[in-house]
């Protein structure tokens, strides 16, 4: 499969680093969690805008009119996370690798000083998969010309220009809205489905994302809408999928598995993958038992390092394993403040409304017999502990 994504991202990166040979810069950026939806929407929509730009350009000017002096717009998909953390997004990495895209093909937000790029060039920003900017991203606001998002409209911190083009609708996946927008624009250009057909990896990315976000239209999660269904049908026609029921299930299984596959992560990456900070407590939750985590190389050093990076005093590690039924365990650790760790540990052990049913295992590790308790249940108890000090 020829891969338009790879060549385009490489080209854009080259253009931006090596020359000033462009007119407008158009940035397409998703939200800071950089989940599959955000990553896919920014890449596919940037590629679409680039394609559309070229379609229109060819129509309005002949070849010889476009002399050496004419400049193009460029369209840059930016993944809203730091490059160093990309390995943590295991499902994004999995899907991209499968389509031939590697980390080196992608552009991350710490690759450029976005602030000065916006200041020094003619820039437009398209927001996908969010419309309330994170504190770090507020400087983008004045440059936003278009928003595509599937969250409930929140105008509490709305600072966008009046003519910003908006598609904000509650559906299961932002990829659904991007698919529909591309479909409609292709129709206007008289090129029904052509972008999808010319960019099969993009169609595959949108398809996979909608399935993951709607948990394959599961009734239990209730995320899918008729709009998501309609776009999935369209993509299945483009991708010529013969057996949609099987294929949808296969894609869901494969991505869910990739999402929880942490076998290639280091201890320090595991501590950063899914973490919350409450008071001065770092609370990472692992898709493996803590007992197993502590057997990794440098696990204790990694805990020390991440505690100091995140300016926390103590770590409450939470583990879960599903390989043969559900098991949970936990450990409180504070290499530099053992006294505090002991106190928090006793507080959790003695907590009785309701009890976590913590039982001693090796070293600091405790088995947690109350299997229904997740980080959500630990957070208020940790807060209570700090009030009691
Ligand atoms: Mn989303």
From TrEMBL:
It holds the Pfam family DHHA2. SUPFAM superfamilies: DHH phosphoesterases. Residues 252-386 form the DHHA2 domain. One of its GO terms (molecular function) is exopolyphosphatase activity. One of its GO terms (cellular component) is cytoplasm. It comes from the Eukaryota. PANTHER family: BNIP - RELATED, EG:152A3.5 PROTEIN (FBGN0003116_PN PROTEIN). Belongs to the PPase class C family. Prune subfamily. This is DHHA2 domain-containing protein. It comes from Bombyx mori.
């Amino acid at each position: 499969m020829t891969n338009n994504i790879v060549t385009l991202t490489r080209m854009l990166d080259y253009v931006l680093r090596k020359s000033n040979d462009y007119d407008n810069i158009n940035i397409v950026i998703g939200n800071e969690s950089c989940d599959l939806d955000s990553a896919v929407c920014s890449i596919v929509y940037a590629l679409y805008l680039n394609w559309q730009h070229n379609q229109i350009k060819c129509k309005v000017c002949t070849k010889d009119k476009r002399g050496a002096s004419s400049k193009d717009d460029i369209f840059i998909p930016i993944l809203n996370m730091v490059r160093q953390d990309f390995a943590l997004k295991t499902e994004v990495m999995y899907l991209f690798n499968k389509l031939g895209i590697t980390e080196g093909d992608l552009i991350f937000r710490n690759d450029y000083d976005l602030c000065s790029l916006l200041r020094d060039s003619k820039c437009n920003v398209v927001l996908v998969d969010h419309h309330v900017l994170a504190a770090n991203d507020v400087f983008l606001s004045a440059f936003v010309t278009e928003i595509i998002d599937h969250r409930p409209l929140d105008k509490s911190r709305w600072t966008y220009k009046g003519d910003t083009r908006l598609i904000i609708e509650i559906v299961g996946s932002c990829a659904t809205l991007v698919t529909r927008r591309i479909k409609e624009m292709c129709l206007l250009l008289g090129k029904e489905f052509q972008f999808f057909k010319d960019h099969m990896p993009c169609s595959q990315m949108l398809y996979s994302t909608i399935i993951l976000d709607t948990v394959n239209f599961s009734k239990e999660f209730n995320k899918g809408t008729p709009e998501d269904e309609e776009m999935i049908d369209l993509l299945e026609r483009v991708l010529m999928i013969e057996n949609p029921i099987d294929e949808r299930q296969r894609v869901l299984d494969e991505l869910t598995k990739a999402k929880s596959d942490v076998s290639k992560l280091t201890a320090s990456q595991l501590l950063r993958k899914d973490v919350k900070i409450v008071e001065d407590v770092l609370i990472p939750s692992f898709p493996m038992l803590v007992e197993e985590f502590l057997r990794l190389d440098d696990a204790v050093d990694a805990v020390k390092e991440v505690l100091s990076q995140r300016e926390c005093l103590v770590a409450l590690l939470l583990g879960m394993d599903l390989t043969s039924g559900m098991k949970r365990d936990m450990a409180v650790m504070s290499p530099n403040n053992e006294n505090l760790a002991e106190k928090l540990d006793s507080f959790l052990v003695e907590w009785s409304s309701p009890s976590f049913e913590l039982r001693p295992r090796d070293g600091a590790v405790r088995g947690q017999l109350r299997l229904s308790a997740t980080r959500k249940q630990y957070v208020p108890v940790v807060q209570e502990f700090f009030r009691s000090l």
